[in-house]
Amino acid sequence: MGKSEVDSMRSARLDIRPDNRKAWKFYIGEANNNNANNESRGKQKVQQVVNGEYPAVLPPNMELFSNQVAGHMQDGINLGMVKSRNRVYKPITKETCGQREIGFYEQLKNSRDPILLEVKQHVPKYYGTEMLTVDGKQVKYIVLDDVTKDFKEPCVMDIKIGRRTYDPLASYEKMIKEDQKYHETKRDLGFCIPGFQVFKITNGRVCRYGKDYGKNLNKETVTDAFKIFLNANTGLNRTLVMQLLTSLWRIQNWARKQRQLRLYSSSLLLVYDARRLRQNQNKQQLIQPPQEETVPRSRPTLKRVNSLNRPMSIAMRDNSGPSRNTFSGLLTKDGPILRGPTSPTRIKQFSPLPERKSGPPSLKRMHSFQNNYDKDLQSMKADYVDILDQLVNTRTNQMWATVKIIDFAHVFPAENCDQDTNFLEGVENLVKIFESFLIETDPSFNENNTEMNGCMGGMR
Ligand SMILES: Nc1ncnc2c1ncn2[C@@H]1O[C@H](COP(=O)(O)OP(=O)(O)OP(=O)(O)O)[C@@H](O)[C@H]1O
Ligand SMILES: O=P(O)(O)O[C@@H]1[C@@H](O)[C@H](OP(=O)(O)O)[C@@H](OP(=O)(O)O)[C@@H](O)[C@H]1OP(=O)(O)O
């Protein structure tokens, strides 16, 4: 395709759908995620449907990154993230920010400082930079590991951390602009949610929530956003919450210790695989004993297995409430330590539910107490999908949810060797919300327990 053809195609799209420029940003709802219609023509290919709903002329083997949920998108003005195989490419469009971010990744790559070595575990692997020709222009890209690469149905949430999201070199206008947006969640919780996507476990469709949704959230409605993201309409999944919380605790622990960096406007990227969540939910329903049917509907719906340890329930029993027994930030080989009123409480080591061993689904088990054959058939199909997945995926026993720190365009050295409270407070509040979810997934949790409300109200 010649340049003039590409140009005319791009302007045709501009003419026909002028509002599309910010389409993704305002989009809330379901979308078909398999709509990338790539045409390889000669050396470059045109991608018709992209992260910001605009085409781009990309080098061969490159495509626009469809799992990008926030940040600058391909939208006719900005360049979006692109991907090739298991790597994502972040364009450097603002020279100073780009150099700062590259500088940070290079520092991590070469450093032996224990704090930097520790944070490296929570940052996507860095593969240097590359020049690519995009839309006929040479652009420098930062090359990173795609943290969604192992997931069949990647659910991704970008949580921008900090009450303050501008750096020390920001202009007065930039400060005002930043302070005005996502105002309530930033003010009350020290973080905001610029975007997320979730694959619904009920129908496999992807739903995307953009900036406008995030800008209208407040400290109460933010819980709804998390529950949508966590596919909690059929009940919060304890294994999922535990995996995310384990990562969050480790990041919190690091943020409490570190005294050398200021992370302005960095994000925590929460990712999990809805495919694995569905399998986990199905499995829990299958092993659920029949007497569960008598449990009143008003109770939390998540079913549990006996082997699953219950850290927060131990905490509640020993210390009578989450507001008085937050995780201390200390992880030992035996599990996290809680901070209690008198002495620290060690929580038993916990791990995600063991995955189902391969083998054909058992027909014997398939007669539910309700004799609901349709439901049984559905579970059986899900089992086969599960087994097929295991046959093609050797990573099946790995974690299927994690949290990474991303976006270091506004990282600065700390001037006075104290904590980065702006970053830390956001992380701590996020941790508290996920700890309250963990309590909710405890089968002994009583809905009327006022302690939990106390926990939510205790945000800094
Ligand atoms: N390593 C990664 N793996 C998978 N997805 C990623 C990765 N890094 C970034 N993303 C995706 O790209 C989005 C934007 O990333 P990032 O915040 O680094 O870009 P940005 O354009 O600098 O953002 P901003 O406009 O907030 O400054 C993230 O929300 C996430 O969806
Ligand atoms: O983080 P930066 O580099 O300052 O870029 C911001 C950022 O992308 C911001 O998006 P959000 O994630 O805070 O929602 C953009 O704001 P909008 O919400 O108005 O789109 C800013 O415009 C970006 O700043 P800049 O205009 O300097 O590129």
From TrEMBL:
<keyword id="KW-0418">Kinase</keyword>
<dbReference type="GO" id="GO:0005524">
    <property type="term" value="F:ATP binding"/>
</dbReference>
<dbReference type="Pfam" id="PF03770">
    <property type="entry name" value="IPK"/>
</dbReference>
<keyword id="KW-0808">Transferase</keyword>
<dbReference type="GO" id="GO:0032958">
    <property type="term" value="P:inositol phosphate biosynthetic process"/>
</dbReference>
<dbReference type="GO" id="GO:0005737">
    <property type="term" value="C:cytoplasm"/>
</dbReference>
<keyword id="KW-0067">ATP-binding</keyword>
<protein>
    <recommendedName>
        <fullName>Kinase</fullName>
        <ecNumber>2.7.-.-</ecNumber>
    </recommendedName>
</protein>
<dbReference type="InterPro" id="IPR038286">
    <property type="entry name" value="IPK_sf"/>
</dbReference>
<feature type="region of interest" description="Disordered">
    <location>
        <begin position="341"/>
        <end position="363"/>
    </location>
</feature>
<dbReference type="GO" id="GO:0047326">
    <property type="term" value="F:inositol-1,3,4,6-tetrakisphosphate 5-kinase activity"/>
</dbReference>
<comment type="similarity">
    <text>Belongs to the inositol phosphokinase (IPK) family.</text>
</comment>
<dbReference type="GO" id="GO:0005634">
    <property type="term" value="C:nucleus"/>
</dbReference>
<dbReference type="GO" id="GO:0008440">
    <property type="term" value="F:inositol-1,4,5-trisphosphate 3-kinase activity"/>
</dbReference>
<dbReference type="InterPro" id="IPR005522">
    <property type="entry name" value="IPK"/>
</dbReference>
<keyword id="KW-0547">Nucleotide-binding</keyword>
